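With this grant's support, the team has encoded backbone shapes as discrete tokens. A representative record is reproduced below.
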Amino acid sequence: MESPVIRLLLVEDDREDVFLFRKLLNKIRPLRFELVVCETVKEALKALDQQHFDLIISDFVLGLESGLDLLKHLRKDETSPPVIMITSMDQREVDIACMRAGAKEYLKKGTMTAELLDRTIRYTLRNHQAGQELKAALNVRDQMLSIISHDICAPVATLRSTFKFCAEQVESQPATMLKKFLVRGENNAEQLLDLTTKLLHWARSQTDHLVVASEAIDCEELVETVEAALTPVLESKELTLVNEVEPDTMVYADREMTETVLRNLLSNAIKFSHLGKQIYLTIYRDGDETCLLVRDEGVGMPPELRDSLFDQRKKTSRPGTRNEAGHGLGLMLVKSFIQRNHGSIQVQSEPGEGTSFEVRLPSHVPTAARS
């Protein structure tokens, strides 16, 4: 099996050094490289805007500019590839300055060999990947702590107050009053259970340990299962689910994840629909994909909210038409599960005109998986 191609951006204004660098790369096995050469910082930044690179190797001296100027620009973008700095100068101050500016490694041209370059590239890419994984894990942790502190503590505190009131007033208050408080406590318990379940699913989806067990799923059966679970909520708001599923439509994905996706999208439509409205569920085959369309006649959303809906760095939750609580986890979970199943999701919405989610998933076993 061939090694993957490493897309490498070389920022070097000396043509002789470029020639020597190509010779060194050709000696490195089994790594394979796709090399793009830029002579200036401006050219390099333009190339980075237009293409994806796995690694940047830059000369320290670039005419009137330096590699530090390039690093200064790259530090503004957290998704920038790692940088190895090379120079003909043998000065510790330059080495330290490059590392402080964000370079991952520093090599001297006169002592560079194919073996040293090979080891440095492997080390840099491996450390960069480990750093990205650590950053993602810390992001998951921070979001979980934020959700726990804001969205779990509130219903727990309400439950505590409810039980305390009932315990203290059980002999002095009428049964109707106690029942009212117990129903409120039950609602808070249901919210807490729903949030905890989504939180655990979402946390698992952010790791590589979540197994995707794809299978052929009958969409009519899928909808029956999800609709049965949501019927009480639909009836409580007098909503009608218009089922427009084409017969014999199949989707090839993980059953539990697909149910979770559909349940969350329909729950979202219910949450933001007014009393007595309709929600439309359309599923049909489109070439090699199955399209699942959930459309409501609800409150819709402004462009700034719509555009940041799946951004994990932003909290996009808001109360429903009956002040239903929200925590923003449902749609993040939807996006994560869809990506895990090689699908895509798009959203269209305007304030006061409802929202439409379109999910596309494979309709059958991919050709590569059959062979």
